Each structure stands twice: as C-alpha cells, then as structure tokens.
Predict the 3D structure of the following.
Amino acid sequence: MSAPASLPPAAPGALFAELAEATARLQPPYAVVHLPSLRANAQDLVRRAAGKPIRIASKSVRCRALLSQVTAESGWSGVLAFTLPEALWLAEEFEDVVVGYPTVDTAAVARLAADEVLASRVTLMVDSPAHLDLIDEVLAGLGTGARQVRVCIEVDASLRLAGGRVHIGARRSPVHTARAARDLARSVVARPRLRLVGVMAYEGQIAGISDNRPGPGRFAVREMQRWSARELAERRAEAVAAVASVAPLEFVNGGGTGSLETTGLESSVTEVAAGSGLLAPTLFDFYTRFTPRPATFFALSVVRRPSPHHATLLGGGWIASGAVGPDRLPTPTWPRGLRLVQQEGAGEVQTPLRGPGVTGLRVGDRVWLRHSKAGELCEHVSELHLVEDGHIVDTVPTYRGHHRTFL
C-alpha cells in the first residue's frame, strides 16, 4: 500500500526553494504549476487507465493551455466540459468536447445547432425527456438551418440500497436502470434532429471519496466502494447494452481520478475521465490506489505578526465547493509547521496562521499553500506560472485570464 503524499517525491525544501527562486520577482498572490509533477501525474493516470483513453475533465483544470498540453500526449483524447458555453469556446480548438452536465442555455444551444463545425464537435448531456424537449424546441425555431445535435445519455452511477431509501453518491441522473436508459434512448432516436452517440456514468462515491483518511471510517469507505464497484459494473453493462440495442454508440464514458483502475477494466466502458489527478489538490492526498504528486501551489504574503505565536497572510479565503468542512480549506504547506487558526480559518482579506513554523516568519515573507480542489484555484488567479528547473518557462492564462466566467 502506498502512503499518501502531501508533497512530491523530491525533498520538499528543494521543491519550494525551486519555486521561490523561479517566482522571486512576482508579487503575491500568484499560482504556479510544477511541470515535472504535472507530467508524472499525467503518465500515472494513463498507466492506471488500463489502456482506455482518458477524456480530460476541464472543470478540474480551467486553463486552456494546460488542456492543450495534456491532450497532446499519448493516452489522452477529448475534453469533458462542464457548461455548453465553455464547450463552444473550447471547440474552437478541440474536436471532441462532451458537456458533462445538462444545459438549459437556449441561446448556446441555438449557437451550437446553427454552426456545422460546432455541431460536429460538441455533444450535449441529457437524462430526461425534458432536456430533449428543450433542445428540440430550439432546433425547431431555427428551421432548416438547424444542424443535427449530438447527445449523450447520463446513467446514474450512485449506489442505492434498501429499495432506494439509502442513496450513496452524487444526485445526478434519474436514469438508474437499464430499462430507463433504453426508454430514454428511444425518446432520443424518435427525434430526427437529435443523434444519440454516447453513454456516461460517473461513480463519484468511488472516484471522489478518499479511502485512506486517518480513522476507522476508512474501512467503511473501502467496503462501500468495493460493493459499489461490483454493483455498478454489472448495472452499467446492462444499461449500455440496452441503449446500444436502440442506437449504435461512439463512446461509453465512466470513472474519474479515483476510480480509473476499476472502471478501466469494465468491458462496457470505452473511455474514462480524469482531471483532478493532474494537479493533485489536497482532496486526493488519501487514496490507497495511487499517490499523485501535488503540482499546483499558490503563494501569499505575510503582512502581520499580531503576536509571537501568529503570522497573518493577506487574503487566502479560497474555499473549495462541496459540503462545508475542514477538508475544503486551503492548506499551508511551506514552511513546515503552519496551520490555520480554527476561529478564523481562511479569510477573505486575511488568514492568520499559528504553529511552530510561525517563529521564523517575517513581514514580507511568502507562504505556499495548496487548494482543496483542482480547477477552482483558477477562479482566483488570471494566470498560472509554469515552473521547471528553477525557472518560469511559461505564463498562461486561466479561464479568468481569458475573461471567461462560465460558473
């Protein structure tokens, strides 16, 4: 069993000395990507995918330049976007973009259907006749100028127990059974303006929940995940077969960073998805199946020493989404021996720290932190500085740097 890593294999002091040297002329706050760690993570994800191509999850990257770099490598193919406007923007460059969530943006649907190139590159996600009605209505309004729209059915991958009274996993699609998937597939093919091309099922209760956090709860998580993987493999295969009996499929997407090994082995799955594992935020520190190298960090300045036992950073309230809890807070990572103050946490304009590492800090020093989730860091900075061998080898815009705010 591999131990969870909070830092890359290289000595942490050497790593942060390299980052500090490369960014000495920058003024915090700023974010960096350590390219050797990113490459190592990308290669490890390909290894874990068991030969299945990986569709990169843009939500976990939110930097077009990094999306381009990763998808140019062997083992990566296509983008899994999170909104239709984002997908239309990315489709200017990428030829295969699947929108991972349903859309009700009628203006974006109209733009998609009116453009031959976009309609050939972008696939919409659906999980109910209501989605089909909305899309079909937009296409009807375009008349003969409407292009056929590609759609993918999302099948619910959550684990349901006790007759459905116990639900473990994300609340996503209502399509849980093979019969429901077949019925929706028939509804799609009954509409000539729509073309059914794929099936997706994302098992968040396996891919997105760490199974090696300290405490006895990890054993229950492991048992739940084993049970869920067995149940889903069978049910997903049945659902895919049911849909394929209605229309030929181009792809079946599944998995995520935390479940590539199991999902990649399912014969019904043709591709897997991953994104967070590239940058390795703190939510991915505690897995038994893999040990990613943290590749993304952000730096803040010490602006106060309110007591000999505290140092205060300017800003830092970069809280991750999801259920509120300590695991959504940024983590002070270097110098060692720093922790947040429980009463204040990470604040909008100031973040006090305590711990033995505070002793050596002076006003003007920099502290390196890690974000809890991958892509959300990019919502706080307009650019990422790419570091290798002690130098910034490139500075690339995030979505925000492109003035794109999709969510």
In short: The chain has two domains: 34-278, 296-380.
